[in-house]
Amino acid sequence: MSKSDAFLQAGKTAVLQNIHGTMQFLQRFPPFNQMENTHLAYLVEQCQLRFYAPGESIIRPTDGPVEHFYIVKQGRVVGERTHAGREEAQTTFEITAGECFPLSALLGERATRTEHRAAEDTFCLQLNKAAFIKLFALSDEFRDFALRGVSSLLDKVNQQVQQKAAQTLGTQYSLNTRLGELAMRHPVTCAPHVALREAVRLMHEQQVGSIVVVDEHKAPLGIFTLRDLRQVVANGIEDFEQAIDLHMTPEPFYLSPDHSAFDAAIAMTERHIAHVCLVKDQRLCGVVSERDLFSLQRVDLVHLARTIRHAPRLDTLINLRGEIGQLVERMLAHGASSTQITHIITQLNDHTVCRVIELVLADKGDPGVPFTWLCFGSEGRREQTLHTDQDNGILFEAKDAAEAADIRLRLLPIAQQINHHLAACGFTLCKGNIMAGNPDLCLSRAEWARRFAAFIREATPENLLASTIYFDLRVVWGDERGCAQLRRGILEQVADNRLFQRMMADNALRHRPPVGRFREFVLERKGSDKATLDLKVQGLTPFVDGARLLALANGVEANNTLERLRQLVALDVIEALDGAAYEEAYHFIQQTRMQQHQLQTRENRPYSNRVDPDSLNQLDRRILREALRQAQRLQSSLALRYQL
Amino acid sequence: MSLLSWLLPRKKPLLSLEQQQRLQQLAPAPPLSEKPLRSQRWVVVDLETSGLNLSRDQVLSMGAVVIEDGAIDLGQAFERTLQRPDNTLSPSILLHGLGPAAIAAGSDPVDALLDFMDFVGDSPVLAFHAPFDQHMLTRSLKDSLGYRLQHPFMDVAALAPMLCPQVHQREAGLDQWINHFHLQVEDRHNASADALATAELALILFSRARAQGIDSPLALQQRLNQWQRRKQMHGF
């Protein structure tokens, strides 16, 4: 070893010793705790440690494309955006020890949009761009983290939740299991000309409930199940030598093997089918039956849906209500996501509503006029939890005001009966009387259209509040066309009315996410709610309101908040990265809220949306804070867009 | 090096030819500059010694980090444990944790000191209680290399109370300042970790100095001299 090499070598040892402490520090935080030691050592070695006094600017929009990646070692950094026409800068986020910035500007090779300032005495590790890029190439964990920003943190929590559930239940299954892993390897098939008798013999031999009829390329032409066999026998057909294709159900529903068990369960519930074909590259590669899903989950969703749909009496429906609660509990324990659960609750609630309407019609007799049962609010957005109010109305067609009044007289008793039955089934009567049994909510299409137009034209506080409920309308039962026309009318009028949009934006800023400049969370200071925050009003509502406004203003017909966000990304109204972050944040808050509800039920406490952040574990708390910051960002973007 | 060499006055240390060449090539030490603080490279030093006796105790290890362009460069750091065959166990081992084995495995003091001076280059030196480090280093360099240390030293322990007068801590040590600024130090009493902590403290102090309109190493030293004189006068 030459002298200079020895010198270099000794220097390296010193550096390694010296950076050890910094590595230890970083290893307390993701993604650094998952990175390989050599990669982490490389990162630290390339870093400069900088100090910033309170108020000092670290990076700002006028600095040009970002040249460094920063990790807060100590202290606190705030992001501030100054909006046009506003003196004061607005704090959009806070970054504390172990957190990094500015990922999107660095990856996008642009200037930051936010001025980053030290809020107190702050040390940051500063990594130059060349080293950042090298690390990005070297370390999968680092790349993952950088690309997904806060999202990968959220993933960690979701994995944690599912692992916990799997541990307690001793099962590695979840509704996210790929169908390909679940289905039989060799589905029982036959050609279309095979005799009925032969096909049934095959089914019997293989002990299966279905046979798929395929062409010479293995593409599914139809499916024949035991239910079809019952039909054949009931129809009195005696010639079992007839070809199977005369009796099969043609064009069977199919999914790809990459769909999840959840997708299959939903399809079976929606379509009232018991078998789903799996097709890849137009070839049949499996069949998933209702029974496969049952044995997987013991969550008899499909069965429950069917029982609801065929409940003979109101009593039966009331009893089934408790089973929905148990189902949700089991699904949450199995690691189903909040989106899956709200989706399922909505489905089951829709089935319950439909069945109640059918039972009332059977009881009271058909009124002789077609009508459509609408729902609003969270039900309209398909975001119901178990604790839900009724928000519904009736839509019908009428030539003129006189005919409308006449029809209304006939429908109101039925509507009131339905409202009462629903209340018996656990749908609490609406305090604001937003129910179909109210004459103001049993309207013809022209009347609804007039009412909605008034909301948009005269933006009073009451009208704004009403629009946040009614404009999430959806059909639960009956003809869908009238409602689609109403929705198109709303979209056209809102798109044309900038003032209404601006008022809605103002309204969407009412509920501020409870994250502050100085503390982690801004909590209630007084009363029984001391030291808690409201997950629904302060966490979810900003997303719901923001997504609704942007959807209505940009012609998006979807009602569901996540669906709205996705379509807004597709329309370039929201940046893809922002959209993904909003979605994850919304999802996480909703998940936390449902876990709280389950916990309350288990402990016999009254149901509440309030949570004490200190009762959450550290990771959850940190992510909740980050999720609420995303709500804050969405609000800031609205403020900017509408110059509020 | 013979056992009691440090006792013998004017005995020229024995250096190999290569060591002599390296000694010749060491950068001279310029006086403190009037350039902005940020453009000055500093070397922040922490020594672990066998005790606190200025004339008898020895330097056991040296740790140093660099402040350059206003930031601590984590890629540049220096740490050497010196071979001291004649070092006897003393109570200070409890403090620095350098056991006999570590010291026996250390580097030849001549090479280590040459490496250190290479690392320092022409930069001024910062240390906590700098007069102590300055004295110990001066003596070691003289004894082992026959080198006269002329680099300016600045005392972080004096800068801190001058620049943060609102902090009422008489004779505050490094630990008190670390606590005051909530600095995270992972491994205290390891020479380079202590140097890093001192450097972090120095970054805070430079920032405070700039806020008070002091923006060059020379201005900082002048202000420090004034402050110390005034303090002495009040002391009487």
From TrEMBL, chain A:
Gene3D superfamilies: CBS-domain, Jelly Rolls. Keywords: CBS domain. The keyword Lipid biosynthesis does not apply. GO terms for molecular function: [protein-PII] uridylyltransferase activity. SMART domains: CBS (SM00116), cNMP (SM00100). Residues 31-136 form the Cyclic nucleotide-binding domain. Pfam families: CBS (PF00571), cNMP_binding (PF00027), DUF294 (PF03445), DUF294_C (PF10335). InterPro entries: CBS_dom (IPR000644), CBS_dom_sf (IPR046342), cNMP-bd_dom (IPR000595), cNMP-bd_dom_sf (IPR018490), Diverse_CBS-Domain (IPR051257), DUF294_put_nucleoTrafse_sb-bd (IPR018821), GlnD_Uridyltrans_N (IPR005105), RmlC-like_jellyroll (IPR014710). Residues 183-240, 248-306 form the CBS domain. The keyword Lipid biosynthesis does not apply. PROSITE patterns: CBS (PS51371), CNMP_BINDING_3 (PS50042). It comes from the Bacteria. This is Cyclic nucleotide-binding protein. It comes from Pseudomonas fragi. The lineage of its organism: Bacteria, Pseudomonadati, Pseudomonadota, Gammaproteobacteria, Pseudomonadales.
From TrEMBL, chain B:
GO terms for molecular function: 3'-5' exonuclease activity; nucleic acid binding. Keywords: Exonuclease, Hydrolase, Nuclease. PANTHER family: DNA POLYMERASE III SUBUNIT EPSILON, PROTEIN NEN2. It holds the Pfam family RNase_T. One of its GO terms (biological process) is DNA metabolic process. GO terms for cellular component: cytosol. This is DNA polymerase III subunit epsilon. The keyword Hydrolase applies. InterPro entries: Ribonucl_H, RNaseH-like_sf, RNaseH_sf. Residues 41-211 form the Exonuclease domain.
